[in-house]
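Worked example 4.2. Below are the chains of a multi-component assembly; read each line carefully before continuing.
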Amino acid sequence: MTEITPITLPKWGLEMSEGTVTNWHLAEGDTAEKGVDLVDVETDKIVNAVELEQGGTLRRILVPEGETVPVGTLIAVMADPAIDDAAVEVFISDFKPVDASFDPSEDSAPETKAQAAPEPQAAPEPAQNVKATPLARRAAEAGGVDLAGVKGSGRGNKVMKDDVAQAAAGGSAPSPEDLRAENAGVHASPIARKFANETGIALKGMTGTGRKDRISLQDVQDAAIDAGLWSRPAPVGRGPVVAADGPASAGAEQPFTGMRKSIVKALTASKQTIPHFYTTVDIEMDALMDLRRGINDAGDEGAAKVSVNDFLLKACGLALEAHPAVNVHVTETGVTSFDRADIAMAVAIDAGLITPVMRNVANRGLRDIAADSKDLATRARERGLTADDLKGGTFTLSNLGMFGVRTFDAIINPPQAAILAVGGPRREPREIDGEVGFVTVISATLSADHRAVDGAVAAQFLATLRTLIETPMKLVS
Amino acid sequence: MQQSPDQIRRAYRQMRLIREFEERLHVENPKGEIAGFTHLYSGQEAIAVGVCENLRDTDYIISTHRGHGHCLARGCDPKGMMHEIYGRADGLGKGRGGSMHIADLDKGMLGANGIVGGGQPIAVGAAVACKARQDGSVSVSFTGDGASNQGTVFEAMNMAVVLKLPKVFVLENNGYSEHTGASYGIGGDLKTRTEGFGIPVWEADGFDYFSVYDAAGEAIEHARAGKGPSAILATATRYFGHFEGDPQNYRAKDEVKNFRETKDALKRIREKVTGAGIFTAEDLDSIDAEVLKLIDDSVGTARNGPVPGADIMMSDVYVDY
Amino acid sequence: MAVLTMRDALNQALHEEMERDPSVIVMGEDVAGGAGGSSGNVEAAGGIFGVTKGLKTKYGADRVIDTPISESAIVGLANGSALAGMRPVAELMFADFVGVSLDQIFNQMAKFRYMFGGKAKVPVVLRMSMGAGMNAAAQHSQTIYPMLTMVPGLKIVIPSNPADAKGMMKQAIRDDDPVIFFEHKALYSRKGEVPDGEHLVPFGQAELVREGSDVTVVALARMVPFAIKAVDKLAEEGITCDLIDLRTTSPLDEDAVLESLSMTGRLVVVDESNPMCSIASEIAGIAASKGFSSLRAPVQKVTAPHTPVPFARELERMYVPSPGDIEAAIRRVMEGA
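Applying the procedure described above to all three chains together yields the following structure tokens:
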């Protein structure tokens, strides 16, 4: 034998895609003739021996007994003793096993990738947020009852003293797990059961009106409406039906999509938990406009045009580096600062809002920023952003100037500490050298998290930003 | 019947080709590159070749799931077959059929068949065409002992008799219907059954090329002459399992070994032709070497053959849709 | 609870039912195997997929009947013995072989009870393996359950996991109507927890495999584990789905589909069979006729293409609907496309 012979996990029959090596009959270094049993391989159907197709020396055993590997895996190598170990090792590392798996290809996998922002972890409802009467609160404290788990029978589902007493006595509201287990045994459609588990309805004893007396979703929904736990959404409309007079007819409620849901959750949490404060500054734009025109006129035909927003991104980047106290992440426990500004830019798309992040903005050229922002916006609209594009912004710039907005207050994108909301340009009269002239002005409003950023810091940041924009040569140097 | 040395050389080569094709597949199959079912014909070479050596270009054959031998004996391109078995775009079926569905209509080979007993009624249909053309051509179906218990085979036999068609039934008894012995599955015997339809049966030793050739010659001549269908009953064995990977728990340990040592069709033909002084052992060895090289080449090109793409998957469902 | 393959779960169900009821008999090609063989081993196969192993040794040749290769007669055996009071479990090896025995199935067993004034009980279970994925090519890979689902009088059972396979096999044997029991080849080695002893899964009861609120995904057989992959992946992005395993296509739990649809408004149906007149078409049709007011986006069908099953590995991998195809379809309904 002058060559190296691979021994691979054999395919025995239609069904076999993997096998377990159970017993090596030969050891490394053994020499044997053709037809000798080399190794036993077990599938979930049979155990069989692999016979040598030709005689030779067993040089390497690559799969130990007890291990399960796919068909085609290199399990051993036969080679003449004259062949040196290095050559055998090279052979092993170069070996390309056959792919004999039964899995279909993922060729037709979607071109669009994940883009919904990751949902922030929902904090457990603290007991003090639950609506409860003072007596109920006191009873809960005394009895060690978690108010969050008590179903309220009062107005607006407010928890009453009796509710707490009932809960303490192991009363009417079983835990979700118990309810789930109890409901599992009842003759109900799977969707009815799911709905019952979600709304906290016990199925036991309910009369089923479905096929073969099965409890249907309708049955449970009716019970939930009766119990005041649920209301039926209006059916999806088929185009508007507007009466000539009388009240406007309500369109069907469109439930939130997955992406919308995460936006709703994140923004609600931000607005409710972060102590926002707002500082607005007016910035003259004429110098920047002139500079921009000059840059774009001088640019090559194919070069990306630099937009006002690109200047703003650059200016924010520099201002953030000058005021690192704004360029931070805030959590309940503390503040994390960053050594560079990665700015998230808010992009409106059909399904909602998305905030791809531009990296290291302060240290990049305007043309580079222009090309990158154009690419991010395009991919955002085509749903081509990757998870990496969305991760780790330290500050957000939101610009609604193109819609003619003068000024607005934005909600902070947690865990960032600040967001800048920029309105559109307007002409305003100013006193210039003792005369009245007109200048182009924008208003920029910084929303800041007061836990990390104080008013003076916000004001200083905006002052720097304003200087950078009004004397814009620093943005191109 | 007298055969010329050229004819015998060709027959020997065909048998060797089938043998080496199948033995090589038995070695290649466990490596995992070949997908799906592979049913090997080793051991029965004399039957396919003994029958097909009597056929003309205008004749038809139809085969079974164990079809490689019939295809090769009928002259299908070994390379095209090997590429098909490896699922290549340039295989005889463009990689869509695989081992069980090799066909070559240009050679009058109406296909291997994945359905046991599926081929015989089709072959009767081809015999209708042969009769209509009045060119003396015949249609031959190969039927294993297992398939001989399908209603379709009885219907085909009766139909061929009633319509007095040039149809030849080759009944190949290799001893096993999948994993069950033929002696268990067949009520009565295949010869009497077939004769019961009024079909004359020529019996042959399925390990002996000359025995099969002579029996098939007479049976086929009967059909060509317009005397109605005929049958050949030949008994042999298969050297491998029902399919590759079959552990063959139903067979005694030394059964195949004994057959290989005492009955082997290739050994038999070698002994006969060298004994009669028609060829020397060296003459035959050189044929063997040429065949081995052809198989080597076929496996080599098949392993690296072109992979079929979506266009191949989506085409030829209809001529026009 | 023991962890078993689907193969062993089915085997366990057959053992338990044969033990429980002496009228249960098993028949088919090589259900034992080896009869007439030279080794003398009269249980050399135990079914080519190993589902019937050990039965002949335990219950004997009168109750575990190896047959010649004669599919029409095999189904006939089941039909006749059922009319005469037995509970036969017949095997056709590959669902494709229904082609050889179709008369016995759709003209005979399916119609006895109706034609004979309601007197006949036909407690036949007809088992067969199905499905692509193992390169068994065009005549050994088909998923023909839509073809038989359209025949009134047949119950069509298609388990996706070992526990259901056991529970539905036991249910099928005890059912007084003919049951066609499809076993996906690529699932035989799928492992899962299987309840010990008595475990029955009633027919016409879909299972909710995953719970969600954005999309209803309906699947069966091997498409269920594939759909689980896709659904779990999307859940990480905040797109959540109700994943319904139909388990039987006749009776069909259309209420489960419609109820889920009423909550999600979006429907994806995954079916390994060809697209025309498929289960996917049927479910889409039900959504259009009975769930129209719930639909917020066109129903997406994920099926094999309208071709025979191709042989080559690369082709079959394209042919079989993949988790990626399912994921893409879910994204499409989310976008309302």
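Take a moment to check your reading of the output against the notes. Chain A has three domains: 5-94, 130-226, 259-476. The first helix of chain A runs from residue 85 to 94.
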